[in-house]
């Protein structure tokens, strides 16, 4: 078992996404000192994932004299106190289940679990450009779209711990709008997440193959192999069909972020995730779209939307903040 030491300057942290499970040893300043990365493989079941994450935690803490505990950020929806999933679209088969008891048993550490985007927002208030902010929103646009909210200095978790599902706000109502994995028609996730950008591009190429030559070429001639990465590459190379898809994605992102600003009035929105990385060369267009769909006040005072500077580590760092606050001695 791993030694529990509430006075330690170190904690174990985990991060569970749709494709990867990560474990890390993190200090109080948010520095990742050791890390292990594996595949999520949700189809193998939550018990299997808990066992593999536990092995990773043992690996990264092997040289540590002790840690305050273990906190895990995860894709949701999830009720963070028991760690119970509620129809998670990217963790198939995990509904109604929790890995918290298994992790506590296998590591010997106290375990806290939080939604990845909520913990990312927490990390940004400690270490990001909005350090010290009392009102901040984090939005991740990747395999799915999630959100984390800090309001008046507190993480907003809602009545069942599932607040922040910003991926399911409506951004499109037309007949061509897609649905997300849990069936929300026209939602942010359904129309701007990585897998659904791929769906949009495949459908567009099927409808107009004569003008999708670069899109199809990059997929090796197989329309079914077109994904978001190929869609962005084809747009960069001037493919008109891919360009139309990416413009629609930019509009969808603009609508989603503008709606979040209107509802929550935060100091800022921090965005991250794979789709954001792909959009960075066109970030001015994204900001223009937020301005177009946003309230008039943002046209005069500016659009407070920034790309995370903490990168892919933001949720791991947020988990470390949660662990120190929950299990560590006050510093």
Quick structural overview:
With 331 residues, the chain is α/β, with parallel strands linked by helices.
Approximately how much beta-strand content do the residues carry? 15-25%
Spatial order of strands in the largest sheet:
3-2-1-4-7
Structural class: alpha/beta
What oligomeric assembly is this protein in? single chain
Number of helices: 12
Mean pLDDT: 94
Going by CATH, the architecture of the largest domain would be 2-Layer Sandwich
Identify the CATH class of the largest domain: Alpha Beta
Number of domains in the coordinates? Answer: 2
Sum up the overall morphology in one term: globular
Uncertain stretches of 5 or more adjacent residues? none
Rg over alpha carbons? 20 Å
Helix amount: 25-40%
Let me know the number of strands: 12
Report how far the terminal alpha carbons are from each other. 25 Å
CATH homologous superfamily assignment of the largest domain: ATPase, nucleotide binding domain
Q: Could you say what the CATH topology of the largest domain is called?
A: Nucleotidyltransferase, domain 5
Main sheet summary: 5 strands, mixed
């Amino acid at each position: 078992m791993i030694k529990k030491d509430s006075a330690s300057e170190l904690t174990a942290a985990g991060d569970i996404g749709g494709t990867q499970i990560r474990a890390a040893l993190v200090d109080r300043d948010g520095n990742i000192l050791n890390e292990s990365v594996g595949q999520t493989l949700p189809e193998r079941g939550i018990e299997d994932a808990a066992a593999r994450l536990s092995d990773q935690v043992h690996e990264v803490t092997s040289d540590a004299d002790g840690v305050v505990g273990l906190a895990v950020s995860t894709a949701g929806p999830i009720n963070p106190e028991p760690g119970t999933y509620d129809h998670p679209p990217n963790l198939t088969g995990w509904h109604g289940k929790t890995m918290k008891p298994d992790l506590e048993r296998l590591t010997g550490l106290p375990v806290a679990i939080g939604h990845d985007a909520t913990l990312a927002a927490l990390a940004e208030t400690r270490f990001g450009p909005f350090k010290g902010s009392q009102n901040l929103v984090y939005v991740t646009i990747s395999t799915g779209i999630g959100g984390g909210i800090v309001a008046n200095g507190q993480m907003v978790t809602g009545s069942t711990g599932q607040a922040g599902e910003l991926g399911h706000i409506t951004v499109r109502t037309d007949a061509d709008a897609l649905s997300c994995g849990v069936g929300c028609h026209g939602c942010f996730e359904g129309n701007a997440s990585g897998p659904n950008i791929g769906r949009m591009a495949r459908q567009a190429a099927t409808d107009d193959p004569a003008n999708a030559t670069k899109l199809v070429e990059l997929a090796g001639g197989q329309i079914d192999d077109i994904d978001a990465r190929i869609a962005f590459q084809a747009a960069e190379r001037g493919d008109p069909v891919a360009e139309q898809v990416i413009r629609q994605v930019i509009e969808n992102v603009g609508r989603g972020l503008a709606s979040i600003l209107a509802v929550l009035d935060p100091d800022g929105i921090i965005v991250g995730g794979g789709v954001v990385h792909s959009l960075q060369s066109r970030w001015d267009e994204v900001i223009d779209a937020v301005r177009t769909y946003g309230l008039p006040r943002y046209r005069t005072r500016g659009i407070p939307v920034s790309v995370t500077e903490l990168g892919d580590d933001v949720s791991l760092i947020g988990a470390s903040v949660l662990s120190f606050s929950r299990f560590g001695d006050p510093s």
